[in-house]
Amino acid sequence: MCRHLAYLGPEEPLGRLLVDPEHSLYRQSWEPRRQKHGTVNADGFGVGWYAEGDPVPGRYRRAVPIWGDQSFADLARVVRTEALLAAVRDATFAGADGEAAAAPFAAGPWLFSHNGAVTGWPRTLAALAQRLPPVDLLSLEARCDSALVWALVLGRLRAGDAEGQALADTVLEVAHAAPGSRLNLLLTNGESIAATAWGDTLWYLTEPGRRTVVASEPYDDDPHWQEVPDRTLLTATRAEVLLTPLKDLAPSKEPRT
């Protein structure tokens, strides 16, 4: 159910990160190598990136497969960035709100993606949804599980939680409400990355002090890729990557409203 990738490092064209590698995110849209659920990610795609001097990222999202968008090739060739988040989508339910349901979701400096599915959606998250301010529910970009999970994360971020804690608490409360859910979440603010491995694959590649890539699966055969254990929170900058077992992170307070 989806593949995604986040990058921090020297300025690169989008295409060098998303299209050119032998097993790039572009290729993973039809031929993922390590995806545990689903085989084709053709229900839309998106990329968000940061421009120098602007903390609010730009986004390009479509409801078509990434290989079916001829404009993306030009965009990927000329747009350069030092930080991005991109995803190709395999929808939990067909036809759910088109490109509005394609990651990355965004608010302020943040970009977010969800690789997975919430078991029993939407019934299982009804109680959690009731805790959100009505304006947040009415402002959901799409009527899908990923959009609501993002609203839960965003509520914690706006209440002042650190990115990693916001992801960890959200994963633990959603997993409790909907056992069996797959909750690989990915978040960046352009300066750091937070991610969870919960039910599907997650890998990272780092050159400390220079670049860090976090992805559902390696985009090449570089032997320095490292797999993140399941039930783990990853937090990263260009300088370091930290892994924390999610079982060691007790849920903190509920989001303030």
From TrEMBL:
Q: Does this UniProt record's set of keywords contain Hydrolase?
A: yes
Q: List the SUPFAM superfamilies.
A: N-terminal nucleophile aminohydrolases (Ntn hydrolases)
The protein's Enzyme Commission number = 3.5.1.118
What InterPro entries does the record tag this protein with?
EgtC, EgtC-like, EgtC_Actinobacteria, Gamma-glu_amide_hydrolase, GATase_2_dom, Ntn_hydrolases_N
Q: Please describe what this protein does.
A: Catalyzes the hydrolysis of the gamma-glutamyl amide bond of hercynyl-gamma-L-glutamyl-L-cysteine sulfoxide to produce hercynylcysteine sulfoxide, a step in the biosynthesis pathway of ergothioneine.
Alphabetical list of PANTHER family matching this protein: GAMMA-GLUTAMYL-HERCYNYLCYSTEINE SULFOXIDE HYDROLASE, GLUTAMINE AMIDOTRANSFERASE DUG3-RELATED
Protein name as it appears in the record: Gamma-glutamyl-hercynylcysteine sulfoxide hydrolase
Listed PROSITE patterns: GATASE_TYPE_2
> EC top class, in one word?
hydrolase
Annotated Glutamine amidotransferase type-2 domain ranges read: 2-257
User: Matching NCBIfam families, A to Z?
Assistant: ergothioneine biosynthesis protein EgtC (TIGR03442)
Reaction catalysed?
A: gamma-L-glutamyl-hercynylcysteine S-oxide + H2O = S-(hercyn-2-yl)-L-cysteine S-oxide + L-glutamate
Q: Which UniProt keywords apply?
A: Glutamine amidotransferase, Hydrolase
Q: In which pathway does it act?
A: Amino-acid biosynthesis; ergothioneine biosynthesis
